[in-house]
Design a protein that fits this description.
single chain, rod-shaped, alpha+beta, four-stranded antiparallel β-sheet
């Protein structure tokens, strides 16, 4: 409609201008002005109608576009709402799972505490058991058989003169039986207080016998030398050195024990009839040399 108004205004302006300038005095000029004004008005009307048609078309297209946009928007909103619902369900599931996992984590934490406590108690128990085993092992070791030997000179009344033999007394001071006991001895005889000139080899008359503990009522085992020593006239000068070797076994430890003892007798004026165990390197070396020189085996 604006084009009609503009055309009318232009026509009016032309008419007024023609009137003022006196362009419309003759008929031809008036016709010209009328034709020009009519054309302007018709042009304005045409363009106005055309503009309205175009505007209406654009409005329809815009309305259709808006309708489609609205439909798409509604579809998007529906999709968003659907996604939100699914996200809500997922969020609920995640929340439930998180709660469950939190419970599991708490349970695992408690189980870990209990495990650590149990582990600590187990370590303490193992330590106690280890200490107890050590004590039991020490006790068991202390209860092993322990054979003690006492050697004496024993006068043989059945023989004439001043005849003596060697008597060994064995006692088990331990708490377990000494199994498979064996003993051998070499008695070195010196009649001038210095040089070993004779010997008596004494072998056990009992082989592989057992000695029960004295604490359990076991008796002392006594072994005598078969040979005798004549002390007539040499009491003051006689010296004896005895090398005794004996072995036995502890069946519980499955362990064998081998021991050797040196015994000395320095004459009647020194120790009476008892052989004493003492350190005398000089006589010990003399007896060892004598045994080697005479190829004596124990």
């Amino acid at each position: 409609m604006k084009y009609v108004i503009i055309a009318s205004i232009i026509t009016a302006v032309l008419a007024i201008t023609a009137y003022i300038l006196d362009f419309a005095n003759n008929k031809t000029d008036k016709v010209f002005l009328i034709i020009v004004g009519s054309l302007l008005i018709l042009s304005g009307l045409f363009f106005s109608i055309r503009g309205e048609v175009v505007k209406d078309k654009d409005s329809k297209e815009q309305a259709e576009s808006l309708s489609k946009t609205k439909e798409n928007t509604e579809l998007i909103i529906q999709n968003i709402n659907g996604n939100l619902e699914r996200l809500s369900v997922i969020n609920d599931s995640v929340t439930k799972l998180s709660t469950a996992l939190s419970g599991v984590e708490n349970d695992l934490t408690e189980q870990l505490k209990i495990f650590k406590k149990t582990l600590k108690q187990t370590e303490i128990f193992e330590q106690k058991v280890s200490e107890q085993l050590k004590l039991e092992k020490q006790r068991f070791e202390l209860e092993k058989p322990e054979v003690e030997v006492v050697a004496t000179l024993e006068k043989k009344p059945s023989l004439p003169g001043n005849q003596y033999g060697i008597l060994f007394g064995y006692r088990n001071l331990g708490k377990r039986t000494a199994k498979d006991f064996n003993a051998n001895a070499v008695i070195g005889i010196s009649k001038d207080k210095k040089n070993i000139t004779e010997h008596i080899k004494m072998e056990s008359s009992l082989e592989n016998f057992d000695i029960t503990p004295a604490i359990s009522g076991g008796v002392e085992i006594k072994l005598r030398s078969g040979n005798s020593i004549d002390l007539n006239g040499i009491e003051d000068d006689l010296r004896l050195i005895v090398l005794l070797k004996y072995t036995y076994r502890d069946e519980f430890l499955n362990k064998s024990f081998e021991k050797e003892n040196y015994f000395f007798w320095y004459g009647f004026d020194k120790t009476g009839l008892v052989l004493v165990s003492a350190n005398n390197d000089d006589f010990t070396k003399r007896l060892d040399k004598y045994i080697a020189d005479n190829n004596l085996e124990l």
